[in-house]
Amino acid sequence: MTDLDDAALWAGAAPALVTPKRCRRHEWGATYQNDGREWTPCLRCDHVRNDAASRRGRTNRQRGNAIEREWAKRLGLRRVGHHGGPEDATNGLFVGQAKSLASGRFPGWMTDELAKLPRTEGRIPILGVLEAPGPGKRGRRIVVIDEADWIALHGGTE
To answer: Residue 111: which H helix or E strand, with range?
Structure first.
């Protein structure tokens, strides 16, 4: 290897081989047409806009916000998630966060376990989900209650 080869090795890749880094937020330019197809490149990184993916993301966010608003209203909570904090809804006593899941990911086993519990003498079924503690670690515990029972106990706007 000669000194010139070493210099080329340490100079980095040839400019033709370097691809521009993708933007964090694209700045879309004009839309071009060719052979009946349209494309919109980013002015900074030349990434081509995928209109279907952009629309899908926008509609998913709108659907999630609508589900969150409806959930907060049903439980009698005031929606505050649009302010950017970790909580989605709150009232004087409770603070909550809504998570909308696809039907295949919903933990149906929890509703099945709640349905097995008797509702005798006015008792309301609850489900405790408990984690076994590990070495030097406290076990986590949560309590699950059906939404209709929650509304019956704490009010809400139905």
So the answer is: helix 108-116
In terms of residue numbers, what domain contains 107? 101-158
Which strands, in side-by-side order, build the sheet including 95-96? 78-79, 89-90, 95-96
Q: Based on the structure, what is the number of domains in the chain?
A: 1
pTM of the model: 0.63
Collapsing DSSP states into helix, strand and coil, what is residue 124?
coil
Cα angle 125-128-131, degrees, rounded to a multiple of 5: 170
CA–CA dist 68, 70 (Å, integer): 6
Cα(69)–Cα(80) distance, rounded to whole angstroms? 10
119-138 pLDDT, tens digit each: 999 999 999 999 999 999 99
Q: Is residue 118 part of a domain?
A: yes
- pLDDT of 33-45, one tens digit each? 887 788 888 888 8
